[in-house]
Request: fold
Amino acid sequence: MAQLRLDKYLADMGIGTRSQIKEAAKKGRIQVNGQTEKKTDRKITPGDDQVIMDGQVIGYVHMEYYMLNKPQGVVSATEDRKYQTVVDLIADRQRKDLFPVGRLDIDTEGLLLITNDGELAHRLLSPAHHVDKQYYALVEGELPADAVSQMEQGVTLEDGTVTRPARLELLPEKEGEFTKTLLTIHEGKFHQVKRMFEALGCKVVFLKRLSMGNLVLDPELETGAYRPLTEGEIKNLRNCSIGLRTCCADRKKT
Ligand code: URA
Reply:
C-alpha cells in the first residue's frame, strides 16, 4: 500500500485531529518501529511500519464495509444534533470517515451499507446503474386491483414525476387490515416507496429494506445489529455496481 503521513495514518483511524496528534507526538507518546517519533509528517507504509500510540499498536484499515439492520429512530447521516446516527451504531468501526450508502427514512428499518468506499457508493447510487432495491412494505388501505401492473408501468407521484417500472408482489397473508407487499424499485427518489403507494391511494405503515443490488439483509441480524461484509459480498457488490450479470437477476422483467 502507498505511504502516507503519520498524522494522516492516525487521523484516518479516528485517533484524533492532526493537531492533537502533533501534540501527542511532541510529548513522546508515539513510536514508529520501536522508536519515539516526534515528526508527524514522517511517511508510514501501512502493513510494514508498526505504529504505537500510548502503548497501543494502531493498525491501518483502508476500507471498511458493514451491513446494518437499521432500526427506527436513527438517522441515515454521519452526524446529527438531535438523533443517533447509523454510523454511531457501528461500535467496532476503525475508520472515522464511514458514511451510509444512500438514505432510509428515520422510521424505515432494514439493510444499510456503511462504508468509506466512496467509489463503490457512487456507483451503487448512480442513476446510470439503477441498482435494484427491494422493500417489504405493510400497506394500509385497499390497493387497486391493477396495482401490480400500475407499478410495472411506473406511477405518477404527487409532484408529477413518473417513476421507473417497479415490481410489486402481494404476499398472501394479511396483518389485520394491512396488506403485506414486496416492492422492488430501481431508483432512489426521496420517500419513493411511500410516495409510490400514495399514488395508488394507500399508506405505508411499516417499511423495511431487504436488499440492495445483490446484497441481501442477513436474516440473522437483529434490528439495530450490524456485521462486516464478507469478501464475497464486497466482490459481488463491486460487480453489481459496474453492471455485471451477478446482479439483479430479475432486471429483464421490468
Ligand atoms: N422509500 C421510502 O419511502 N422510504 C425509505 O426510507 C426508502 C425508500
Q: What stands out?
A: Helices lie at 6-12, 18-26, 118-125, 147-153, 192-199, 231-241. The first helix runs from residue 6 to 12.
